[in-house]
Amino acid sequence: MSRGPRANNNRFEIDLKAIAGNVATVRRSVGSRVWLCVALKADAYGFGLLPVAKTALLAGADALAVGHVADGVQLRSKRIKAPILVYGGEPLSPSLVRDLEDQDLIATVHDDESLRACLRSARHAIEVMVEVDVGLGRLGFHPTEVVGAVARIRSAARLRLRGVYTHMRVEARPDARATQAQFAAFQAAARDAGPGELKMAASSRVLDRTAGMTLNAVDVGRAVYGLLPRSGGRLGPRLKPAFARLSSTLTTVKAIPSQSRTGALHGVRRLGVIPFGRAAGMAAISTGTVLVGGRRTRVIGTPSLEHARIDLTRLGTATVGDEVVIVGHQGGAEIRMADVLRRHPELPDAALGLHVGASVERVYLA
After folding, report:
1. HEC profile of the chain
2. I need a surface site. Which of 9, 279, 280, 321 has the fewest CB within 10 A?
3. For residue range 251-295, what is the model confidence (pLDDT) as tens digits?
4. What is the pTM of this model?
5. Considering its fold, how many domains does the chain have in total?
6. Does 157 share its domain with 294?
7. With 60 as the cut, is the pLDDT of residue 236 above it?
8. pLDDT tens digit string along 25-34?
């Protein structure tokens, strides 16, 4: 038995060049006059808030959107000056409203309570966008309530309306009539906001299917990270995945006698151990195989919290220190994201990066 170093040798390689190219592809698709807002919720889908923010803006994005006020504050602390929209859903305490105001963040008002919070706690001026629920059933004013919400904002001395937006329900199987009905409901509500305001309804999946719902602003997430289907859409085939490679290192190689069902010795099996277990995301993202020396071999059993075992019996030259690829290419072989999704059909494509543990080193390829 041989043992390697105890250092964590796990790497999650993220392709910033792919992200920049994807933003540029979306920009070409929607045109130069459309407000291009890049979604950075959930730590930029697990790819890293600050690196993705900087890359997206340099590649042509006009604005960023985050899931929490604290994320917007963090970006401002790193001298990000672009408009930052904070999605709705976080209860707006007086201190959070002050942060929105002090850091020049765009607040989302999606119901009476969020609007009251801004009206009650704003001291000087806060930009707000009104979210409309046209079918997703999550957050947003009902379309018939938008005219009242907009009137209250326009009459408030310390609130300024930046626009209205929605997140439409987009089914895996295209349903043009359902999508069109949601879009028509949003357009009717958006008219109540008046001319000149931002109107944002098109997400990545909407843009992948049609150019007819772009309006004057778009809100893209999946497209930026190359997470749209690679065939059949307007954008997907032109995008590149930001998820480049996920790898570890053999830290232990050992020989174990193999027994038959009767208990008789049945040769020797070689196995390897990698420091990539459940805590790092192995159970959630593994296809059940890995690449070693450009050859595919199986993962043995289920991973423990900190380690996983792999079969090296047919890889006689594998040794401590060798790279083990969990997702990505090695030599002429590749384990693709599509392979991961087939193995884990319950895993949304947007969650791939989120399932890589925080302990795994992020390595950015520029």
Report:
1. CEECCCCCCCEEEEEHHHHHHHHHHHHHHHCCCCEEEEECHHHHHCCCHHHHHHHHHHCCCCEEEECCHHHHHHHHHCCCCCCEEECCCCCCCHHHHHHHHHCCCEEEECCHHHHHHHHHHCCCCEEEEEEECCCCCCCCECHHHHHHHHHHHHHCCCEEEEEEEECCCCCCCCCHHHHHHHHHHHHHHHHCCCCCCEEEEECHHHHHHCCCCCCCEEEECHHHHCCCCCCCCCCHHHCCCCEEEEEEECCEEEEEEEECCCCCEEEEEEEEEECCCHHHCHHHHCCCEEEECCEEEEEECCCCCCCEEEECCCCCCCCCCCEEEEEEEECCEEECHHHHHHHCCCCCHHHCHHHCCCCCEEEEEC
2. 321
3. 999 988 876 666 655 677 899 999 999 999 999 999 999 999 999
4. 0.92
5. 2
6. no
7. yes
8. 999 999 999 9
- Regarding whether 207 and 276 lie in a shared domain, the answer is no
Residues 155 and 251 in one domain: no
Report the CATH number that the domain containing residue 351 is assigned in CATH.
2.40.37.10
Q: Are 209 and 234 in contact (CB under 8 A)?
A: yes
Which sign does the torsion angle of CA 288, 291, 296, 299 carry?
Answer: negative
Question: Which three-class secondary structure string do you get for 268-318?
Answer: EEEEEEECCCHHHCHHHHCCCEEEECCEEEEEECCCCCCCEEEECCCCCCC
Sign for the pseudo-dihedral over CA of 111, 117, 120, 122: negative
Alpha carbons 156 and 260: distance in angstroms, whole number: 79
Q: HSE of 134 in the Cβ direction (CA atoms, 13 Å)?
A: 27
Neighbours of 161 (CB within 10 A): 20
The predicted pLDDT at position 6 comes to 39
Range of 99's domain? 16-225
What is the mean predicted confidence (pLDDT) over 71-93?
97
- Give the Cβ contact number of residue 300 at 10 Å: 16
Backbone torsions φ then ψ of 86, nearest 5 degrees: -105, 115
192 and 261 together in one domain: no
Q: What number is the average pLDDT over the span 219-246?
A: 94
Asked if residue 30 and residue 6 are part of one domain, the reply reads no
